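Issue 218. Parser rejects a valid record. Input:
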Amino acid sequence: MLKLGWTYNLLHNDRQAIRWFDLARKSPDPKIAQEAGAAYHNLRPALETFRTTVWMFPLYSSRWSDFFSYAQIKTELHLNSPVHPYVSLRFVGDTRGTIGPENSGIAPQYLSESALIAGLGAATNVWHGLLGWAEAGAAVGYLTHHILQDYRGGASFTKGFGHMLKSETGGLFFETNDDAIFVSRFDNDFLLYTQNRFGYTPSLGALQTQFYWNVNLTQDQKREPWANFFETGPGLRFRLAAMPSSLYLTLNYLHGSYTVRGDPYGPTFNDLRAGFWYAFTY
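Output the parser choked on:
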């Protein structure tokens, strides 16, 4: 039964695969039951009609001496179609709120959106790491108390090669996360992000670690100084094997250069960023 489950899984017929994994996890052999149980629980969220995903990414930035937090809870309706609707609630905020007091000669500015953003949207199924999405809703500023219409959408691409964080053997790896996003609240701006990491995953047993180099680029259509910069520098990502499978900690030291002049805080910057990523689906 376990072999049938893996066979159907390799053939991308996960509805049949999960059926055989469900039967195999009742096996009297504890090794077979454990392997089948893990496979069953890994496949089950992807086959549910309603799927709720929660992710969070809090981090500290030495450049701004500030804690930032990004999070989202999203419930999707999955039918047998290439596009599925969803309802979403995002949080984007930080602890400082604004910088640049009036007596400094620099107009105060917000370091983040400082908002709860509720929306209804639709997204495509993932195809070779690529997906598209569009969303309409409203953003409630928890500092300004303003409620603004919010329309956003775009495409994202994620791909990794080599020995990833939870690999049992060490080796080289490369991964890229690329996003093209339209945001109405940024004066109908269109932004491009590419974040790339290449490095080495050592085999350290229970301490799962990656050492890597960052190469990041951000640009926008309107050529705003704050949205056009290049960053590079070393990074570290690690977790313990006993942690939840999607939880890991990050530490990055980045040197950045603005590609459009005009930012009042200088043409270059250095930033030490420490945080963690956690996500789960149920």
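Fixed in the parser; the record now loads. Residues 1-47 form one domain.
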